[in-house]
Design goal:
mainly beta, about 10% helix, disordered N terminus
């Protein structure tokens, strides 16, 4: 009898092991200050469970998770679950989602896990993310993945500075090019004269001077130490393999401000996931990963040797480095960083001429490129009143019915319409404070200084612009719908659905028949599972990415968060977001709570992403189904851009009958 019971017990335990973890995960995280030594100097940092990054949280699709976060800091904190679909009050954004986690308190997050893939978590309070409050999050699928691999590793890339992040921001506010150590010199000028001639070189310098910009300003902050899973390059973080195995690498860019170009010399990479969503496998030699993006790749090392995982920053100021090896202690040659690049007028969307006529004065009202009205207008057939009563965090008097104001902050247009300009209503959210718990949102003082580029001036300046080598846009430049890019395509008309990029619309060194390296492009991404909602968008929302580099503040449609109304969506509606980047910087735009489907010509299989990078001077389209009630953050994920104003609240609410 005992032997029989023992056999039953063993069989039961084996069945449980095969079934996987119980569908009720519980986790405990503690955020506290620690002293760390990343660069050879001891510096204060903020850690999760005592480490940077925090621990890998491993969940399973379909389970209900409970995560207790305890704050041992001397200031308010929070954790946002980046890319996770969950109730709005669990999203972890102070003011929008909840009050934040006060010092000494514990907040309990509870939500169902509705997806699988590679994601991450981080603080959404002040500049804590730069100080170390971030970590990986991996969700195993309920069903087997559509690709095979033998082992896997998280590769979390990040940037570290020994400086206090508030001092970094202060330096940028005082002098926006404070960290640009690669400015052009008089020697560069005379070299360009020798290569291109006097007239072309002088015209180029005058054009950049008129914009009050520097073509070498690829990244706002240089001088970082770049990390792999919290380790600097010299530490040689190592992942083991057996020759012939298929190894899955889950790349996460958890940086505050840094983009990386990733390659593994000697190995090609098969991209199988983007932002946690399975994509049709595409084999590449390298890829660019924007801040907050994730890419999963599979590699097959055949030889019994080491391989270097090499991630160089796009400004070529440094690199993160890891090793794939059959045993510990091995190392491969570290590649030489490629030459640093500079922006050209072509990169800024001005391929037909200089930009000396560019406007720099802040417009009195939001203006769409081409003269159409921006914020403060309502399209014909304006949205009726919304029912906010069911939305957590919305402060309304009992028994009152709230309606949308007559005008909206983001320009929204039904397809093909041109709405008249009207005064913007005050709305009930105009007094909201920035949901980041800091005091950096005061309006910059009036006075001189460049503002966002005037798009109407782009591409119509002096003739004869030299055919300079453009800045590589690895992985993002072709993200524009139907192959469109640049300000010449910023009108209201939506691109026809299903239209594909023209032949030769590749960017940044795409593979050719001559065997040149293949660089991942957004155009390569095709969702394995078709999108559930394939309705055409009902309207278009214009999101102009603007800013004042000289005074270092960033905005959407020329309005900082502190001056803007929310973007309002009707629950269940389908909209198209038209991103127009009027600046010289990349902007990885992140929408909380909902997917953005990049319009790249794949129709129902357009890739779903939580973060969409919009390169300088380009236009990108993304469709969104407003299927998540509540208040959601929508912002650039460059930390200092978000902190200084490139942020909006998106409100999704039910429509109710308009009061008579």
């Amino acid at each position: 009898m005992k032997m029989r019971l023992k056999g039953i017990l063993v069989s039961t335990l084996a069945a449980l092991a095969v079934a996987g973890p119980a569908l009720a995960g519980e986790y405990d995280l503690v955020i506290e200050e620690k002293t760390v030594n990343v660069t050879g100097r001891e510096r204060p940092a903020m850690t999760v469970n005592g480490s940077i990054p925090g621990p890998v949280l491993r969940m399973r699709e379909g389970e209900e998770v409970t995560i207790r976060v305890t704050n041992r800091l001397s200031e308010l904190t929070s954790i946002h679950w980046h890319g996770i679909l969950l109730p709005a009050n669990m999203d972890g954004v102070p003011i929008l989602s909840f009050d934040g986690i006060a010092p000494g308190e514990t907040f309990t997050y509870r939500f169902p896990v509705k997806q699988s893939g590679t994601y991450w978590y981080h603080s959404h309070s002040g500049l804590q993310e730069q100080s170390g409050v971030y970590g990986p999050l991996v969700i195993d699928p309920a069903e087997p993945a559509p690709y095979r691999y033998d082992r896997e590793y998280v590769v979390m890339l990040s940037d570290w500075t020994d400086e206090d992040p508030h001092r970094v921001l202060s330096n940028l506010k005082k002098q926006s090019d404070y960290y640009n150590w690669n400015k052009r010199t008089v020697f560069d000028f005379f070299r360009d004269v020798g290569d291109k001639g006097w007239d072309v070189t002088v015209r180029d310098r005058l054009d950049w001077g008129a914009m009050r910009m520097d073509p070498t300003d690829i990244a706002d902050v240089s001088g970082y130490t770049f990390l792999v899973n919290g380790q600097p390059p010299a530490a040689n973080w190592t992942a083991l393999f057996k020759p012939g195995e298929r190894v899955r690498l889950r790349f996460i860019n958890g940086s505050a401000m840094s983009f990386f170009d990733v390659r593994i010399p000697g190995l090609r990479m098969q991209v199988v996931q983007a932002d946690g969503q399975d994509v049709a496998p595409v084999t590449v030699d390298k890829f660019r990963i924007a801040v907050a993006e994730t890419y999963d790749v599979i590699v097959e090392p055949k030889e019994h040797r080491a391989y270097t995982v090499f991630a160089e920053s796009i400004d070529r100021s440094g690199y993160a480095r890891a090793t794939l090896a059959p045993r510990e202690g091995m190392a491969a040659e570290i590649p030489t960083m490629r030459p640093r690049q500079i922006l050209t007028m072509a990169d800024m969307g001005a391929a037909h001429g200089g930009m000396s006529g560019m406007q720099h004065d802040m417009p009195a009202q939001d203006q769409q490129p081409g003269g159409a009205h921006g914020a403060g207008h309502e399209p014909p057939g304006a949205m009726p009143a919304m029912d906010h009563g069911s939305m957590g965090g919305m402060q309304h008097k009992p028994g009152t019915q709230k309606t949308w104001p007559a005008g909206d902050t983001a320009s929204d247009q039904p397809q093909g319409s041109t709405a008249p300009h009207s005064a913007a209503g005050a709305g009930d959210h105009s007094g909201m404070t920035m949901p980041m718990q800091h005091g950096a949102m005061q309006e910059a003082p009036a006075g001189g200084g460049a503002t966002a580029m005037g798009h109407s001036a782009m591409g119509h300046g002096s003739a004869g612009q030299p055919a300079a080598q453009p800045m590589e846009q690895e992985g993002h430049g072709i993200a524009t719908a139907a192959g469109r890019s640049g300000p010449e395509h910023v009108g209201h008309q939506m691109p026809p659905r299903g239209e594909t990029a023209p032949a030769g619309a590749a960017h940044g060194g795409m593979a050719m028949d001559d065997g040149s390296p293949k660089i991942l492009s957004y155009a390569d991404l095709r969702a394995v599972v078709p999108n559930y909602d394939t309705r055409p968008p009902e309207r278009e929302i214009l999101v102009r990415l603007t800013g004042n580099m000289e005074r270092y503040f960033w905005s959407i449609n020329d309005k900082k968060f502190s001056k803007a109304e929310p973007i309002k969506l009707r629950h269940g509606e389908r909209v198209r977001i038209k991103f127009v980047n009027e600046t010289m910087m990349n902007h990885p735009m992140h929408l909380h709570g909902m997917w953005m489907e990049i319009e790249n010509g794949n129709g129902a299989n357009n890739p779903r992403k939580h973060t969409v990078n919009v390169p300088p001077g380009q236009t990108v389209y993304a469709d969104v189904t407003a299927d998540a009630l509540g208040q959601w953050a929508f912002h650039c994920h460059l930390l200092y851009h978000m902190d200084t104003g490139m942020f909006r609240t998106v409100v999704v609410a039910n429509v109710v009958a308009q009061a008579e």
